[in-house]
Specification:
heterodimer; A: 2 domains; 8-stranded mixed beta sheet; 11 helices; 20% strand; B: 211 residues; 2 domains
Chain lengths: 561, 211
């Protein structure tokens, strides 16, 4: 038993798992860090990071066979290409059941989706933590903004977030590196929507280094290649590989074990606590038990929920920590695939150099202050302006030399806005085990049953109309709004299936992310979220994780867990 | 941003990456990341896999009319016909392949009907006239859809146009000699006069999705 015993076990190495590994090891805990997938070493294992487009077969497009094998991730429209397909799960090996269309976009490898994430990093505001209580929706968050604010500071300063402090009440300022610049059309648009509609706009806040970080000299600054999804050879954006795992490694306290599929939490009925985890080795298919005083679940929202649902004991016959019956319920995401686009005249003599991996952000304004709508909550927009190119000539009748010459000229300017809308937590939007189907390893699969409901559909009308209204107000032409079908999950901001709350009868986790009924298990990935707000959630997962790690170490010192 | 920075080539980039990693990787190991394949060879070496030789010859002539050799190389020079052959074989579905080949036959039949000769034996002027007619009619038809069909099925001429544009502008010649491309910009200038944005030509963009 001794060789398999550690102070702490962290399950998962993505956005939140990397943070748990860093914080726990830096606080002196001998920590076993498990990931179900292959190891991915920084830079060496980014096979396409420096490949030029002409070096890919098929101009980078996926083959028909690849699209069949990775059908669910392909629904994003960008994930499955020759440049990035190796980061996404093969559905034929790891299927799941869709009672309604559900888009579960997974990366099974060390670093998880911290390699492919969108890097947009926004704080939640006091309003977001108060919303459920104020609206009488679901359950109240057991924490408030002030509980998390110092941990947002801590996380931003470590990962490096580029952005502009604006003093917006609904989008708190942070500890930012210098902002990226808006192009001339974006500046015009900002000025127009402020003047005509009184709405605010800021440059996207992104986890990219726009200046060096003294504590992480191994990381370089952003080179404006905008090939981030392939892995950054400069370490310029935050990923577990570029940032948290090297910090954990440096302590000498981390044992990283890839290819380790945690499928069960071991519960000690006598002691009334978790004693460890059961691991299936993805290569040898051997099972091994590992033990620790404290366990952090960071296997992704549905990954952690799966492990809990699959951990049945006398004490927890309905899934680990599931006294409330809320485990697997309250699936949230952000609704998107909706917005508008327009052509912009008057800037044809202006262009840009470099590929900025970022856009602009319009923080939520609906149901803020005096604004009142016939639905709850609201949405933000991400967007940006750029000049078209040869793709805009597909339906131009030009041929031959004329076509070639036109393609070489910068095309028209376009400004686009895409909405990110809050989805409420509904008990009925849930995930369960489907024992009738098995994955590659003979494990049962998950079954999703979740839909957008009336509040979301009412919000969608504003999301399309407001985008068009702003572009029209700015004086742009050919304004086209769009509203495409989406499955929940497509936002890749899945949350909520092991929510935090004040009452063990209605929630799975307490204010410190501990399982109410088993205090030495912490869950700090997206599954802990009590509501979804409309901001990209990863920064909040990181702050919650750092806060929970601090709590766990204090509780260990006090011999409380 | 300095001109040096703009012109930093990939070897320098990778050496810089190795440096930034604090020497954790040797330069040769980083250079081992250069695993791409060489640019496509001249058209003469092309042996169709999906097409018959005759079909391949028609596709090659149509592609060259869409993007001809001018002061810079054209579709045939950069291997667009072979690219279309490979795309149809591996990227498209059977229904698309069937539609493409049926359209290709109709296209060749139209040449025979009008001129009594297969398309590849027409004069350049006759070929260009026929491509223009098919091109303009198909574009007018697609633009007339309202709403645009969700699962739009493009005819032979527009599939060839799409694949020629894609293959050409994603080729090294298309991206670097006709458009402009910098692997590692090193910085971002948000708003500059067009003439000061590199050489003033359109930046090559990655277009891995559908056109």
């Amino acid at each position: 038993m001794n060789e398999n015993t550690y102070d702490a076990i962290v399950v998962g190495t993505g956005i939140s798992g990397g943070w748990a590994a860093k914080e726990l090891t830096e606080k002196g805990l001998k920590t076993l860090v498990l990931d179900r997938g292959r190891n991915v070493r920084h830079v060496q294992d980014y096979p396409t990071a420096t490949t030029d487009i002409w070096e890919f077969p098929y101009a980078g497009r996926a083959t028909a066979e690849e699209l069949r094998r990775q059908e669910t991730a392909a629904r994003t429209g960008y994930a499955i290409t020759q440049a990035s397909k190796h980061w996404f799960v093969d559905d034929t090996e790891f299927p799941y059941t869709e009672k309604q269309r559900f888009d579960w976009v997974r990366g099974y490898h060390v670093g998880g989706r911290s390699i492919m994430w969108g890097r947009q990093s926004y704080r939640w505001s006091p309003m977001d933590f108060e919303a459920n209580a104020k609206d009488g929706i679901a359950v109240d968050w057991p924490i408030r903004y002030d509980d998390l604010a110092p941990w947002y500071d801590h996380v931003e300063q470590f990962i490096g977030v580029s952005g502009q402090n604006e003093g917006f009440a609904q989008l708190p300022d942070g500890k930012f590196l210098p902002p990226m610049e808006m192009n001339c059309v974006e500046k015009h648009f900002k000025q127009q929507v402020a003047e005509k509609l009184g709405r605010q706009l800021t440059i996207g806040r992104v986890a990219h280094l726009t200046a060096p970080l003294a504590h992480s000299p191994q990381r370089g600054t952003c080179q404006y290649r905008n090939m981030c999804i392939r892995g950054c050879p400069f370490g310029a954006y935050f990923s577990s590989q570029s940032s948290t795992l090297p910090a954990a490694e440096k302590t000498g306290n981390m044992t990283l074990r890839p290819n380790s599929i945690v499928y069960e939490i071991i519960y000690d009925e006598k002691k009334g606590r978790a004693s460890g985890v059961r691991v299936l080795d993805a290569e040898t298919r051997q099972t091994t038990d590992f033990f620790a005083k404290v366990i952090f679940l960071n296997a992704s929202t549905f990954g952690s929920t799966y492990i809990m649902m699959n951990s049945i004991s006398k004490r927890f016959p309905n899934g680990f920590g599931n006294d409330s019956g809320e485990l697997g319920c309250n699936i949230m995401d952000h609704q998107l695939e909706i917005g508008a686009r327009a052509m912009v005249d008057g800037f044809d003599d202006k262009y840009y150099t470099g590929r900025r991996p970022n856009g602009i952000y319009i923080p939520r304004y609906r149901n803020v202050g005096k604004d009142k709508r016939d639905y709850l909550r609201g949405f933000g927009y991400q967007g940006g302006a750029s000049r078209g190119g040869w793709t805009g000539l597909m339906l131009d009748t030009k041929l031959g030399e004329e076509l070639k010459e036109r393609a070489a000229e910068p095309g028209p300017w376009y400004m686009g806005l895409g909405g990110f809308g809050e989805i409420l937590p509904y008990h009925e939007n849930r995930v369960t085990m489907d024992h009738s189907r098995k994955d590659k390893y003979g494990m049962p699969v998950l079954a999703f049953d979740a839909v957008l409901r009336q509040n979301e559909l009412a919000m969608r009308k504003d999301m399309a109309n407001d985008a068009a209204e702003m572009l029209e107000a700015a004086g742009y032409r050919n304004v086209r709004s769009y509203d495409r079908e989406m499955g929940i999950g497509l936002g890749i901001h899945e949350m909520g299936t092991a929510r935090m709350g004040r009452d063990p009868k209605t929630s799975v986790l307490n204010a410190h992310n501990q399982v109410h009924a088993c205090k030495n298990v912490y869950v700090t990935d997206g599954s802990c979220m009590t509501s979804a707000a409309c901001q990209n959630p990863s920064l909040t997962y990181m702050a919650l994780t750092a806060r929970a790690c601090n709590h766990a170490v204090e509780e260990l010192k006090r011999m409380n867990i | 941003m300095s001109a040096d920075n703009m012109n930093m080539n990939r070897r320098q980039v990778l050496q810089r990456a190795a440096y930034l990693m604090g020497g954790a990787l040797s330069a040769p190991a980083v250079l081992g990341l250069l695993s791409g394949c060489a640019p496509k060879q001249e058209e003469a070496l092309w042996e169709p896999v999906f097409f018959s030789k005759e079909q391949g010859a028609i596709v090659a002539d149509v592609a060259e009319i869409i993007i001809p050799r001018t002061k810079t190389p054209g579709a045939k020079d950069v291997g667009v016909p072979g690219f279309i052959d490979t795309m149809l074989k591996d990227v498209y579905e059977q229904a698309d392949r069937d539609r493409y080949l049926a359209g290709l036959k109709e296209f060749d039949d139209a040449a025979r009907k009008a001129h009594g000769k297969p398309f590849v034996e027409l004069s350049k002027a006759q070929q260009t006239e026929q491509v223009r007619k098919f091109n303009d009619d198909a574009i007018a038809t697609e633009l007339s859809y309202d709403p645009r069909p969700k699962d739009l099925k493009r005819p032979f001429i527009l599939m060839t146009r799409e694949l020629t544009l894609l293959g050409f502008f994603c080729s090294e010649v298309g991206a670097t000699q006709v458009l402009q491309y910098v692997a590692v910009p090193g910085g971002f200038q948000a708003c500059v006069p067009v003439a000061e944005a590199g050489n003033g030509r359109a930046w090559a963009q990655e277009a891995m999705g559908r056109l």
